[in-house]
Write a structure and sequence with these properties.
- The structure is a single chain.
- This protein is an alpha/beta fold.
- The chain has two domains: 136 residues, Alpha-Beta Complex (Aspartate Aminotransferase, domain 1), CATH 3.90.1150.10; 256 residues, Type I PLP-dependent aspartate aminotransferase-like (Major domain) (Aspartate Aminotransferase, domain 2, 3-Layer(aba) Sandwich).
- It has twelve helices and 15 strands.
- The strands form four sheets. The protein has a seven-stranded mixed β-sheet, sandwiched between helices. A four-stranded antiparallel β-sheet has the order 11-12-15-14.
- It is globular.
- Bound molecules: pyridoxal-5'-phosphate (PLP).
- Pyridoxal-5'-phosphate binds next to helix 4.
């Protein structure tokens, strides 16, 4: 019989969302007339902006004519898009990134999951806790995580707790690691890092010879002008950091699929021979072997985001979600809850009331306000005692959910 990759057996089952679904189903069976509101959504809900839809239509028409039809494109993205990214996402912020350092893809999930392939099978990994689960699971699949540690984690992963006590600012690793995943604005805590905190990470990585895998999928939600949108706004980051960016939450591409990863040419890691090897060349090799490029029509749609109308329309959608986040934050604070995030991120990270753990608070919100969120413990052990709500719902149901929480949770 063929043998499997046993590391897959070490993955924890998709407990979080299946358990939420089970409890919701049970509640609905017992209360068929209750109108549930889902504020746990981590997906865009507003339609694509008109400028993007127009570009999609035009690109489809190009594909319908022999003279303008496109087959395979460049595996790393069309220049019309990488040049716009270099100019608008980086040049406009005083950062120099060459178009050929930008690798366009079908999503940050796949890029963040695949990038670990470039590192040694026994490379040591550090993760913030709580965390977007893809960083962990992709390393479990690769055999880097070790065995269960008996506390809900894995014994070869270094967990960097992010809690209210350290203002969700992860501590630097206290033992050698090869790679660190950082995500800011953060999912799930909604925290951001200012320039001094980011510089501390870059300086540490330069000294330690580690690589930072920086996920900036939510940079479009940053409101405060002094918060960096890119790790490359910090001097020296080009030598130590990869950056993942996505159109999913900025331009509503969760179903349309387009993202990009920046791998600067100065970024190196060590071969077993001791030689320093550029990760740029390795990622190029990886992508051109295992990926055949994001669709032409989709890249045209992404490019439309950089037109003046596209920018305005994308901004309006982000403002809409951020207004929802503000309504939730203010409403929950008025209900006497302690709330974090929601200022530079669409995620609101709620401290559960004394005596209630994440799941007990989930049950309380479900039963008393008929509102569904996400228990923080599902994102890692440091998420225990917290609860995630998001600004991705529609306005009317967000307002109603907040009103219900305010009136019913107080009783
Ligand atoms: N990175 C983070 C932190 C996310 O929360 C998500 C989606 O929820 C992604 C990446 C996935 O992005 P994409 O839709 O581009 O695959």
């Amino acid at each position: 019989m063929a043998r499997i990759n046993d590391n897959y057996l070490r993955l924890k089952s998709g407990y979080l969302f299946s358990e939420i679904a089970r409890r919701v189903k049970e509640f609905q069976a017992a209360h068929p007339d209750a109108k549930l509101i889902r504020l746990g959504i981590g997906d865009a809900t507003q339609p694509l902006p008109p400028a993007i839809v127009q570009a999609l239509h035009a690109a489809v028409d190009e594909m319908a004519r022999a003279e303008t039809f496109r087959g395979y494109g460049p595996e790393t993205g069309y220049e019309f898009l990488t040049e716009l990214i270099a100019k608008h996402d980086y040049g406009a912020r005083g950062v120099t990134i060459a178009p050929d350092e930008i690798f366009v893809s079908d999503g940050s999930k796949s890029d963040a999951a695949n990038f670990q392939e470039l590192f040694s099978p026994d490379a040591a990994v550090a993760l913030t806790d709580p965390v977007y689960p893809v960083y962990l699971d992709s390393n479990v699949m690769a055999g880097r995580a070790g065995a269960p540690d008996g506390r809900g984690g894995y014994d070869r992963i270094l967990y960097l707790p992010c809690t209210a006590e350290n203002r969700f600012d992860p501590p630097l690793p206290d033992r050698p690691v090869d790679m660190v995943y950082l995500c800011f604005p953060n999912n799930p805590t909604g925290a951001v890092l200012g320039r001094p905190a980011l510089k501390r990470w870059v300086d540490w990585a330069r000294g330690a010879g580690a690589v930072l895998l920086y996920d900036a999928a939510y940079e479009g939600y940053i409101q405060d002008s002094d918060i960096p949108h890119s790790i490359y706004e910090v001097d020296g980051a080009r030598e130590v950091a990869v950056e993942f960016r996505s159109y999913s939450k900025t331009a509503g591409f969760t179903g349309t699929r387009c993202a990009f990863t920046v791998v600067p040419k100065e970024l190196t890691a060590r071969a077993s021979s001791g030689e320093a090897v550029a990760l740029h060349g390795l990622w190029f090799r990886r992508q051109s072997t295992k990926f055949n490029g994001a669709p032409y029509v989709i890249q045209r749609a992404a490019a439309a985001m950089y037109t003046p109308e596209g920018q305005k329309q994308v901004r309006a959608t982000i403002d809409y979600y951020m207004d929802n986040a503000r309504l939730i934050r203010e409403g929950l604070e008025a209900a006497g809850l302690t709330v974090y995030g929601g200022r530079n991120a669409p995620y609101i990270w709620v401290k559960t009331p004394a005596g209630l753990d994440s799941w007990a608070f989930f049950d309380k919100l479900l039963n008393e306000a008929h509102v569904v969120g996400t228990p923080g413990a599902g994102f890692g052990r440091s998420g225990e005692g917290y609860f995630r709500l998001t600004g991705f719902g529609n306005r009317a149901s967000t307002e109603e959910a907040v009103a219900r929480i305010k009136t019913r949770l107080k009783r």
